[in-house]
Design a protein that fits this description.
This protein has about 120 residues and is an all-alpha fold. The chain is built from 5 helices and no strands.
Length: about 120
Amino acid sequence: MNFPLFLTTLWFIYFTAKIDYKHISSGQHITCHDDRFFQRLLFFIAVSAFSWELGIASALLFALLFDVVLNLFLQAPIFYLGNTTWWDRFFRKRDFLYAIMKLLLAAGSMYFFIYGEG
């Protein structure tokens, strides 16, 4: 397992959620996620420079934890889904699918962090 990259990904998730929290809590509603998408994509590409498996593991871990961490900052229910992003709108009406997806993200992330090269 590449523990340093795992920790780096956790810190990345924490700080990106904290930045979004600060915008949201100050009344700056995030309606366009394009810049955030490209920032995060660049992070995962950089991680992929070590190995593609770790890039996938980081992306899966981000998808698993980002909204949970943001909800903790916002003091919202841990699995609260908003209504802005397509992700939230899609899963809002599909609780069971959301739970299955979270389990698959957890399993996939653990698999690639543990067994991936790098």
